[in-house]
Amino acid sequence: MKKLKQQIQSLPEPLQRQIWLRFGLAAVLLIFGLASAIAWRDISMLVIIAVAVFSGALGVRLCYRDYLVITGICSEVDTTVIRKRNKAIVLLASVEGKDTALRIPLRQQFRKLAVGDILDVYVDATAAIYERDGIFQLQSYIAMEKTKK
Predict the structure, then answer these.
(1) 52 and which of 12, 30, 36, 90 could share a cystine (Cβ 3.0–4.6 Å)?
(2) 3-state secondary structure the chain
(3) Rounded distance, CA 28 to CA 35, Å?
(4) Distance from the Cα of residue 16 to its chain's centroid
(5) What is the mean pLDDT of residues 91-109?
(6) Residues 45, 19: contact at Cβ < 8 Å?
(7) Of 12, 41, 63, which residue sits at a domain end?
């Protein structure tokens, strides 16, 4: 356990936050699942316990996963048509000495981004990146952090 905690502390803060969120979800689901299984004596509550174990395993896996940090400037913000919510950004990042455009879909917690913001995007080292219309498409990321200007 001590080794795992040291491994988590050696990671950047946004990745630590993701790991602790997964462990917290696992703990809450485990407590709820055990309490429900005992109170109602129903074996179907074991599904909740299985989800808790899966969430904890994802947290441990994230501790030992290789990742890349892509730092760049937000050059464009795509919004939805009706409610004008941010749905994706285009990040200008320098890769091997040349500027590259990278389109990233946003999650709920990053709805307040503007053009010119500097972002650090933490990506799995084996993440799939596709090219479409001269812009690279990143399908998922582990964590994103808005750095100070």
Answers:
(1) 30
(2) CHHHHHHHHCCCHHHHHHHHHHHHHHHHHHHHHHHHHHHHCCHHHHHHHHHHHHHHHHHHHHHCCCEEEEEEEEEEEEECCCCCCEEEEEEEEEECCEEEEEEEECCHHHCCCCCCCEEEEEEECCCCEEEECCEEEECCCCEEEEECC
(3) 11
(4) 11
(5) 84
(6) no
(7) 63
> Are 27 and 90 part of one and the same domain?
no
Alpha-carbon Rg of the chain, whole angstroms? 19
Which of 63, 82, 107 is at the close of a domain?
A: 63
Same domain, 71 and 143: yes
Range of the domain at 137: 67-147
Same domain as 133, residue 75: yes
pTM comes to: 0.84
Q: Which of 142, 144, 123, 120 is nearest to 71 (CA)?
A: 120
2, pLDDT greater than 80: no
- Measured CA to CA, the distance from residue 68 to residue 64 in angstroms comes to 13
Sequence letter at residue 17: R
Total structural domains within the chain: 2
